[in-house]
Please model this.
Amino acid sequence: MLLRFQVANHASIRDEQEITFVAGDDRPQRAQRPVPGTRLAAVPVAAVYGANASGKSNVVSALAWMRRAVLDSFRHWDPAGGVPRRPFRLRQDPGAHPSTYELDFAVDGVRYEFGFTVDDAGIREEWLACFPEGKRRKLYTRTGPGPDSLTFGRSLAGRRKTISELLRSNSLYLSVAAAQNHELLGRLHRWFRDDLRTASDQDYRARLTYTVGLLRSGDERSRDALVNLLRFSDLGVTRLEFHEPDERLLDETKRIQAALNDAGVPFRLDAPEHDVRVRHRTEGGTFTLELDEESSGTRTWIGMLGPVLLALGSGGALVVDELDARLHPYLADALVGMFQSPDVNRKGAQLLFTTHEASLLGNNARTQLFRDQVWFTEKDPDTLGTRLFPITDFHVRDSPDAKDNLEKRYLSGRYGALPFLDDELLRRMADDIASGGVSGAGQAVEAGRPKAAGAAQGPRLLRG
Model:
């Protein structure tokens, strides 16, 4: 299970921010599970709200970047290329500030704490500890880029010296050890690969490929689960079909891509891995449409089927950016409810998502999110860095047993994390367009370029 994530200096996140799945209250009506070695429990769902550009997506992005660093740093990062990180850039000399990522998670009944600090050149620190009996035990600590900076705890067995010799300045020790088939560290590496998954517009194709994999598998129960989830959405879809891609098209695509790359032109031409079609049944018969003929909402739901079924079936953590994008609020609500429900979520799967959909917080939602499951992001007015904070930071006078209308409080500005809309700027804009300041002449306006003598007066630029 995923327990805590902490990050500093990633994209819009300037200072250290943290999100936790540790429950604040005991709620037997949700699919919470005990944290190994403690008296605590972990919540199944955490939601992150905030205004546009407040940094919600960067919380997800930071977690996804940490995952990719674990999976790719040894096998895929350029040995001489440093670390492809995304530091906070709205300050002087951003490259001089390191970035830190830390995660608490549980695997096979044991809690682990793993983290690292990087700069543009390489790994500055890395650490891994376990809590097999509730007490912290060091597995290894790294205090510099080279193997001589590593120290090991007595709890870590295996070929530690051999693995250390393969370490690069920009590769994580965990990644190297997994590549060398270290039993324990390989198991933790697989948790990042198989049990921590992300879903965003950028990985839609991969998600669709997994959904097709469920259709192709010989597991009849998996196919039935997928079909039932399709029908549950009430999109008029009865089944999915797929056809293997044209091998000649794939070969031609690879040939063109290789020729361009050999010529020094970096280019990637994606050919569809599968031809996916959607079957609909009407009173007039059964009809099949290509996937790209479907609505964006239908395509989004189909793309979510694979990750959702995989998480619910195996108990992993699913991280979704903009859950409500192109989905009806009822469908978004139902999806959250699958993870929240002890009856549906029997393997302890977890869902972390960002959203604008305030109705999920309301009394009319199918799924009740409790106060220890709701987080907000907003921009610090001085640094423009993202602040991440829980709703539990705010005192509520209501009885703990009463269902708080979080939607009403959020939309009224009780918790912040809302956009500030300056009506005075709106009035000035209306004055400008009413006075002819904006015309349909089709003239291009470029900020900072002086107007040539005799040129026609173009639209004025609003500043501030």
About this structure: The chain is about 30% helix and 20% strand. The domain at 1-200+321-423 is CATH 3.40.50 (Rossmann fold). Residues 155 and 382 are 45 Å apart (CA to CA). The first strand starts at residue 2 and ends at 8.
